[in-house]
Automatic annotation (TrEMBL):
Any one Gene Ontology cellular component term annotated for this protein: cytosol
CDD domains associated with the record: PBP2_LTTR_like_1
Keywords: DNA-binding, Transcription, Transcription regulation
Location of the HTH lysR-type domain: 1-60
A GO molecular function held by the record: DNA binding
Family matches, as InterPro entries: HTH-type_LysR_regulators, LysR_HTH_N, LysR_subst-bd, WH-like_DNA-bd_sf, WH_DNA-bd_sf
UniProt name for this protein: LysR family transcriptional regulator
Family: Belongs to the LysR transcriptional regulatory family.
The organism of origin for this protein: Pollutimonas subterranea
Length: 297
């Protein structure tokens, strides 16, 4: 059975207006032409679509079902027009990417730069969130892709390793701990810490590790960014733990010392995740494959 887009549009107008005459005026045609299109559609389907009465028309059961499908078709047609218009304007689509701070600070600038050189007309909507928020956003469909440190099972998500990072203990150069080659977490717990906000994967990991050692984590100050955390450590407000890539480039310029953290949890895996589904738009798929490959290079 073939359906004509213009006829479906007129049918939706009739359903919306509740009147063939008003629908004809809305579509800038005559009532007889609208009536004929509806009659031809009913013959084609083999079912009555409208109850006709003196005050107008109402949808039958078949008409209500057609209305649902026709509305979806017209929405998709509008989306198609918008997508093709983007091509004409040189913008070929958008990918919604959410990532934790570690991925954004250490790796994504380089990987997104190389992707956009290959696909210069793609727009990437990048947002920074905690790993837990990234999990929820990708699972809920409000983001196409996410990069996170998993804190719970990735049910409903497809994941691959993006990158691994290594945690370092950050301190002023004259700090007593700076004489070591590396540090166990237990050796640091007698000192005040500058940490990231509670709820971040790194803060959660540190709190849990301190609890397993049955020692308190002396979290003196919580900074909302890696930059802020480094500055506070440099001023002697406490020691800190950050990924290597966000520490080593700033050691000399910010007057800091850093030592490897000798713990199993100090090597973290950043996972690239997407919602598990059969149909997958091409742009998120292209970015997913690019980031996955970048992590393997």
């Amino acid at each position: 059975m073939k359906y004509d887009i213009q006829t479906l549009k007129i049918f939706l107008a009739v359903a919306s207006e509740g009147s063939i005459a008003r629908a004809a005026a809305k579509e800038h045609t005559v009532a007889s032409a609208v009536s004929k299109r509806i009659s031809d559609l009913e013959k084609s389907i083999g079912a009555t679509l409208l109850y006709r009465h003196r005050r107008g028309v109402k949808l039958t059961l078949a008409g209500s079902e057609l209305h649902q499908y026709a509305s979806r078709i017209m929405t998709e047609m509008a989306n198609l027009d918008s997508a093709m218009g983007n091509h004409a304007n040189g913008v070929r689509g958008q990918v919604r990417l959410v990532a934790n701070t570690s991925a954004i600070v250490q790796f994504l600038p380089y990987d997104l730069s190389s992707f956009l050189k290959l696909h210069p007309t793609v727009k990437i909507d990048l947002e920074e969130h905690t790993s837990d928020a990234v999990h929820k956003m990708v699972a809920g469909g409000s983001a196409d892709l996410g990069i996170m440190v998993p804190q719970r099972p990735l049910d409903g998500l497809q994941a691959c390793l993006y990158r691994a990072d290594e945690l370092m203990v950050l301190m002023p150069p004259d700090h007593p701990l700076s004489k070591h080659r590396s540090l166990r977490f237990s050796e640091t717990l007698s000192y005040d810490y500058v940490g990231l906000p509670r709820g971040t994967s790194l803060c959660n990991t540190m709190v849990n590790a301190a609890q397993e050692l049955d020692q308190p984590l002396r979290l003196r100050i919580q900074a909302t960014s890696f930059d802020g955390l480094r500055r506070m450590v440099a001023l002697g407000l406490g020691i800190g733990i950050l990924p290597r890539g966000s520490v080593e480039p700033f050691l000399q310029t910010e007057g800091l010392a850093a030592l490897p953290l000798d713990e199993p949890w100090a090597r973290r895996e950043l996972m690239l995740v997407r919602k598990a589904q059969d149909a997958w738009p091409i742009l998120p798929r292209l970015l997913y494959e690019h980031l996955r490959q970048a992590g393997n290079d």
